[in-house]
Amino acid sequence: MDYDSENVDSYDEYIKPYNHAARNINGKLKLALENALDIRKFEIGLYWKRAGYFWIFISAVFVAYYQVITDCGLPAEKRDRFALVLSALGVFLSCCWFCVNKASKYWQENWEKHVDLLEDDVMGPLYKTTLQYENNNPCSILSADTFSVSKVNQLLSFVTILVWVYIFVDELLAIFDYAVPNKQYVPVICIALIVFLCMLFSKCKSAKINGGAHFSIRRRKRTSA
Questions:
Q1: Residue pair 62/142 in contact by the 8 Å Cβ criterion
Q2: Which residues contact 221 (CB under 8 A, 6 or more apart)?
Q3: Alpha carbon distance 107, 180 (integer Å)
Q4: Residue 225 pLDDT more than 60?
Q5: The pLDDT value given to residue 61
Q6: Which burial class, exposed, middle or buried, applies to 136 when counting CB atoms under 10 A from its CB (0-12, 13-18, 19+)?
Q7: pLDDT tens-digit series, residues 41-59
Q8: How far apart are CA 52 and CA 157, in angstroms?
Q9: What pLDDT was estimated at residue 23?
């Protein structure tokens, strides 16, 4: 079975398959909205499970790194080598976490857009209707505000990348400053880290979604049986 794709740039184009697919279009739209809400809820749950998953691994690497640099029983050469490997692993895991956060945000926004398009004709603009405070003081520590929890998490993951990059560079410079023998493993670790990061950012991306108020949906179409 082959599939083609088309761009959907308006509500009329978005709703067209529902008109052709069912006599009872309202029932079809209701079912589509229920599924969009369920999948959106599922994606939000997965988002925080993935965040916890990466926090466990990154925290474990932090602890292992601290144990290595404070272990006076290890020879200096091994201590520096292990510290460099662990810091490189920290950079890679943090970049993976950052990319997973962006991917999770993409799918969450994807299903939220479906809800935005479907809800008006089924139950009314519930998700589009948000609370607005009058004279809300943004400096008040007790008042609510419209921060994006997922964007805060993305920022946290990006800061974690910067911290691990600093540790990695610091360990790399320390190795050359102290003239540790058998430094052949240093370029190997650096090259491996660069290759892994290039693969992560170039090969592990899914299709883009346009942000902001303007959007375009890409829909697959079955072309042959």
A1: no
A2: 3, 4, 5, 6
A3: 47
A4: no
A5: 94
A6: exposed
A7: 898 888 888 888 899 999 9
A8: 12
A9: 57
pLDDT score recorded for residue 33:
85
Helix spans in 24-75 (H): 25-70
Question: Can you tell me the distance from the alpha carbon of 96 to that of 171, in angstroms, rounded to the nearest whole number?
Answer: 21
Confirm if 168 and 194 have CB atoms less than 8 A apart.
no
Query: If we measure between CA atoms, which residue out of 107, 139, 117 comes closest to residue 207?
Result: 107
Distances (CA, A) of 198 to 171, 195, 208: 22, 5, 18
Share of the chain above pLDDT 90, in %: 12
Query: Is a pLDDT exceeding 50 seen at residue 84?
Result: yes
Give the gyration radius of the chain's Cα atoms: 24
Q: Are 84 and 150 in contact (CB under 8 A)?
A: no
Residue listed under structure tokens 């998700």: 127
| Phi, psi dihedral angles at 223 (to 5 degrees) | -105, -25
**Which helix (H) or strand (E) covers residue 3, if one does?**
strand 2-8
- Alpha-carbon distance of 47 to 154, in angstroms, equals 11
Express each pLDDT in 134-148 by its tens digit: 666 666 666 666 677
CA dist 140 and 222 (Å) reads 54
Distance CA 21, CA 25 (A): 8
- Backbone torsion region of residue 182, taken as left when φ is above 0, otherwise alpha when ψ lies between -120 and 50, otherwise beta: left
The token pair at 199 is 């693969």
Which of 186, 164, 163 has the alpha carbon at shortest distance from 174? 186
